[in-house]
Amino acid sequence: METLCFGQIQNKEEMILMEKLEQLYEGKAKKVFATDDPALYIVEYKDDATAFNGLKKGTIQGKGIINNQMSNRLMAYLEKQGVPTHYVEELSQRETLVKKVSIVPLEVIIRNISAGSFAKRYGVEEGIVFDQPTIEFSYKNDELGDPLLNRYHALALKLGTPEELDTIEKYAFKVNEVLKGFWKTCGVTLVDFKLEFGRLADGTIVLADEISPDTCRLWDSETHEKLDKDRFRRDMGGVEEAYAEIMKRLEEHLN
Ligand code: ADP
Ligand code: UDP
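# adenosine-5'-diphosphate complex -> structure
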């Protein structure tokens, strides 16, 4: 038992005491803890940063706080727009109560503009604006290096049912529409991003994990300055400043 976190569940009146029980998992960016409610986990965001499947390691001071707060605010906003998420309540600067899900082992990537592995794989420059967004899946498997796969591969590997994949695609495009519009009001272009989905105990698919500058490419709309983890990946400097700037813009535009 490490910390006690006080929180108020939105749809209950009384204050509840949420206790971090055993650590279930430590990933590259977050730790996951059990709670005394079997349907809820606490996630704790770290400042650790990795890239290139863990080959590059470092620290981005204050990242955990920004990613926690940004992800929570964006997920709360998405809920209001009809996308169900795992978000329950922010407990502290780095800790959040979430609904426990069984993660669908797919990284769902939506792109509006060419960048990163897309530009590299297809031999095109970064910055080509697509007529319509693309979707791609990677098999979430660190040992295999998260290989790209298509819907048929995902079905063959029984990573999800056809209905679940339809739901995931529908939500992923909806998240894109909502977030593209939101970031535009902040003077930011949403280039691409990665989502993860999970199943609640009753099988309902919800958006899980995080939405942050670690998992999205965000460019200043006018200067195209990068305000995301590419500054770390590409040793561009100004990493902490970029995270702080994107958080500041979110706070100015999301009530
Ligand atoms: P990684 O596992 O890629 O190193 P993280 O450090 O972000 O990533 O670890 C967080 C882990 O928790 C991820 O494996 C993610 O899939 C998982 N996760 C995210 N949200 C939930 C949730 N609501 N319930 C269960 N697991 C979750
Ligand atoms: N991404 C992520 N986790 C991953 C791989 C990608 O969050 O393990 C995000 C990344 O931040 C970017 C988008 O998904 O916003 C597309 O990444 P890409 O495939 O271009 O890979 P990268 O260039 O990061 O290797």
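# post-check
The pocket of uridine-5'-diphosphate (ligand 2) is lined by residues 107, 109, 115-118, 146, 192-194, 215-217, 229 (CB under 6 Å).
The chain has two domains: 4-99, 102-253.
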